[in-house]
User: Fold this.
Amino acid sequence: MPDTGYDNPRTVLSEYYREFNQQITSLEEQGYSITYQNSDNGVPVSNFNDTLMVYMVKYGTGQAAYVMDDEGKKNLKKVFEEMNYCDQSSSATQISAGESLGEVVTTGYCNCSLCCGQWAGGHTASGTVPKANHTLAVDAHSPKVPMGTKIVMNGKTYKVEDTGNFARYGTDFDIYFDSHAAAQAWGKRKVEAFLAEGDENMVEVTVSGTLVHNLTYKDYMALDKLSEEQKDWLESMMSNEMQGSLSAGTGGQEVADLAMTKIGCRYSQDRRYEEGWYDCSSLVQRLYKEVGIKLPATAATQGEYCYKNAMLINKKDLKPGDLIFYSYEVNGEFRNISHVAIYVGDGKMVHAANPSRGVVIDPLRTNSVVFYARPY
Assistant:
């Protein structure tokens, strides 16, 4: 769409997605598991263009398709809310001894006044003396598991003996440490938890989940909110040729060309801002800076920036300069993102791989992808 300097459907829709994605991120931080109605090999499907085209078909005629007045924004918001919404639920599920509870959010606390307030120096909620590498706390009002349950995390067996008021912060378990420094050093981490062998045969675990409905244009057509003529027009608008003209910004090819010139450079996290040295995220950040686009410093924060600013795209729409975000470990960062690469076209990507390989060109890897994004 032409840049008129005024609000147009794309800029207004981007703001709606920013607000919506920030709500989803907030739910994640509160401990809700997020599932998408439409995904491709675990990667959420972006329905940005689907939503935009449905609006164009229903309401866009002439200049109304480009310049947004209050009525246009109201209509676009209506279509957006019909195609993007979420359902939250909390349910109880039965977990047997030895089974995984999945990834849980943990924090640390000690017996000091900063952590425990008026209960500093006292016993746990169950009347025991808290012990490091043993005592766990659950939320008093929304406990993940019952009091007395034994949980295994990182090879250590803990027992739920205490309670707190922390579910609102997205924490499942608060781990007791013998010093405030140790509790602070632990911070907030996601780890996999298991019901300990030898505990009761089965416990009831509270699971909070959110289903994000990201309707495609075909999903919307199935709702029978369009005439047959509008459906035919929508199918035409969603053709690959039309999508290519809508999706591509500027700067991507330049980033891809720059990335090709960095092949053979060395890898270092400590020297990532020195000439000739890169890690995965500094390669992305520095190349995008050269084309006038400012991105955060780490792979996880770059991914979070793209997600919150409605920059996600689908694999089939990849163009040179687009980013691929990966998760190879549970690191407690946004969506556990641990690596980022630059797509350079022809099914290839350039990335700062590791100290032994440096900056290399590889075939596009689709395993462990969190999402694809276009920050330009």
The two ends are 14 Å apart (CA to CA). The first helix runs from residue 9 to 29. The chain is about 30% helix and 30% strand.
